[in-house]
Amino acid sequence: MNQLEQLWRDEWGRLLALLVRQFRDVDLAEDALADAFEAAAGTWSAGPDAADGQAVPDNPAAWLLTVARRKALDRLRGADTARRKLPLLAVERSRADSRDWVEEVVEVMDTDDELRLLFLTCHPALAAEAQVALALRLVLGLETAEIARLFLVPEPTMAARITRAKKKIAVAGLPFALPEPQELESRIETAVRAIYLGFTAGYAPGQGDAVVRTDLAGEATRLGQVLARLLGRQRPPMVDALLALMLLQHSRRDARVGPDGGLVLLADQDRTRWHADEIEEGLARLAQVRQAAGYTEELRLQAAIAGLHAVAVHAELTDWPRIARLYARLEQLTGSPVVRLNRAVAVAEADGPRAGLALLAGLDEALPRSHRLPAVRAELAARSGDDQLAREQYLLAIERCGHEGERTYLRTRLAALS
Amino acid sequence: MKYVVFLVGYVDDVVFEELPEAEQAAWMTKHDEFDAAVNAREGCAVVGGEALTGGDAATVFRQRAGKVELTDGPYAEATEGIGGFYVVEAPDLDTLTDLLTVLPGYVMEIRPVDPAFE
After folding, report:
1. Are strands B59-64 and B106-112 parallel, antiparallel or unpaired?
2. Which residue of chain A is at minimal alpha-carbon distance from B1?
3. Residue A79's pLDDT band (boundaries 50, 70, 90)?
4. CA-based nearest residue in chain A for residue B109
5. Which residues in chain B have their CB less than 8 angstroms from residue A172's CB?
6. DSSP state of A44
7. pLDDT of residue A106
8. Per-residue pLDDT tens for B15-53?
9. Cα–Cα nearest to B33, from B22, B23, B20, B46
10. How far apart are CA A414 and CA A417, in angstroms?
C-alpha cells in the first residue's frame, strides 16, 4: 500500500470528523476530503528531488485538511446556499472551539470528534444495517461500491441506503455530539451491536457463494478497534468482549475455506493457518473482561468459547466439556435455539452423539427453516449408527441450504454414508 | 428545529382508562412536568399541542370531482390510536428524546417539521 492509501486508511475518519465539525454538512465534508486526496494523488510525488509536482509534505494530514477546507469553502461560495435543501447538523461545542482552530486544530488529536462521528453513524434512530454501512463509509472511508461488494448487494441499493441515512441525520436533527453520560452506555451498546452485525454478515454470510467474506469481517474488526481506541480507558468491558470475539473468530479465516472454495469444518481446519498474533490479542482482551451480565456477558461467553477452540493446538485437544458448560450458560442467558443447537454439538463431543441428539428434541418448531439443525442432527445420527435418520436429515439440510459451499459439503457427507 | 410528536399508543398496551385513578392523575401531572422541562431547556419550547378525542369521533374528508365525501371513523387502524400531539422546538433529536423521557408511557412517533414550508 502506498503512502496515500495508508493515509486514507488511517486518517480518513479523523479528518472527516474535523470537517463535519466545521461545515456541519456530511456530504460537503466527504466531497471536500475526497477532492483533497485526489489533489494529493495528482501533485505529491515519490521523492524529495522529483522534477515535477511537490514532494510529500512533512505533515501530510495537515496538508490534506487545509486543502479540503479550501475545497469546501469553494463549493459553498459556488452554490446558492440560500436554496440549501437540508438543515445543517447540530454541532456540539468542543474544547477546540475556544482556540483559533484554523491554525491549531490540525495539531489537535481530537479523538472526541472522531468519536462524535462514530456515534453519529451508530445512532439508534437509524436502522441497524444503515448504521454499519454508514460507519464503514464515514469512519473508515470505504467507498459505496466497496461497501456494496462487501455486503453482496448492488451498488445502487447500498448508495440509496447510505443516502437515506445521511438524509435522516440532517432532516431529523441527529446531532454531532457525544452522548449524555446517562445515555453513553446505551449508545456504546448500539455501536457494538452495529459493528457485530457487520462482522457476522462477513463471518457467516447467509446467502450467495462466498463461504466467508473475510474483507467485511476484517473491516468490522477495524471499526471495533477504532471504537476501543477512541473510548480509551473509559471503554466498558463490552467493547473488549466484542474485540476478543471478533479477533478470535476472524483469526481462523485462512483455514475456513478449502482449495476448492468449499467450507472446512473446525475439526478439519489446518490450525497452522490460524493467525496466532490475533489469537494472542483476542485472548488478552478476553482476559480483561470479568463475568458480567446482559449483552456484555453474551459476547464474553461467545468469546470464551472461541478462545477455548483457539488454544486447542489439535482438534482432539479441544476442551469440549468446558465449551458445553459455557454454551449452557449462554443458552440460559439468551434462550436462543441457535445456541441450543451449538450446545448440542459440544455436548455430543463431550458425552457422545445420543446426548447431543437428545438436546435437539423440540428445536424444529423454533428453527423451521434452518438447514443447520437437520445438518447437525444428520451428523449425530450417523455417529450413533442411525443411517436412515442421517440420510433423511442430510436431504432436508441440502434442500434448505442457501449456500453453495455448504451444500457441497453436505452432499459429500450424504455420499459418505454406507 | 421543529418536531411534531404524535402520541400513537401506549407502551406495553396499557389501557389508560383501566388504570387506577391515582395513576391516571400521576400520568396527567407528567404532561405538566414535560411543559416545565421543555421550557427550562435552552433552545426548546412547546409551540403547540392538543389532546385529541377518540377515533369514534373522527371523520374522514375527501373531495373528488367537486364533491365532498365524508366517512365516519378514523382513516386507518394506525391513525386510530393517535391520542394527542405536541409541537416542540428543540436544537436536535437527542435533546428532544431526552425531554420526552419526562412524559408518561406513550408510544410516540417523532416527525421533523419540513423547514421549507415554515
Report:
1. unpaired
2. A173
3. confident
4. A125
5. 93, 110, 112
6. E
7. 46
8. 988 999 999 999 999 999 999 999 999 999 999 999 999
9. B46
10. 6
Please, is A393 exposed, middle or buried when counting C-beta atoms within 10 Å of its C-beta (0-12, 13-18, 19+)?
A: buried
Q: Do A173 and B115 touch (CB under 8 A)?
A: no
Neighbours of A120 (CB within 10 A): 23
Report how far residue A220's alpha carbon sits from residue A229's, in angstroms, rounded to the nearest whole number: 14
Q: Which residue, A292, A314, A315, A313, is CA-closest to A304?
A: A292
pLDDT at site A102: 46
Question: What's the CA angle centered on A191, arms A187 and A196, to 5 degrees?
Answer: 145
CA–CA separation, A346 and A323 (whole Å): 6
What pLDDT shows up at residue A100?
Answer: 47
Q: Which three-class secondary structure state does DSSP give residue B105?
A: coil
Residue with cell 465539525: A21
pTM: 0.87
| Residues A90 and A173 sit within 8 Å (Cβ to Cβ) | yes
Q: Which three cell numbers stand for residue B14?
A: 396499557
Q: How far is A408 from chain B (nearest CA, A)?
A: 47
Residue B93 has its nearest CB partner, among A85, A125, A180, at A125
Contact B91 A174 (CB under 8 A): no
Alpha carbon distance A298, A353 (integer Å)? 26
Distance CA A240, CA A373 (A): 31
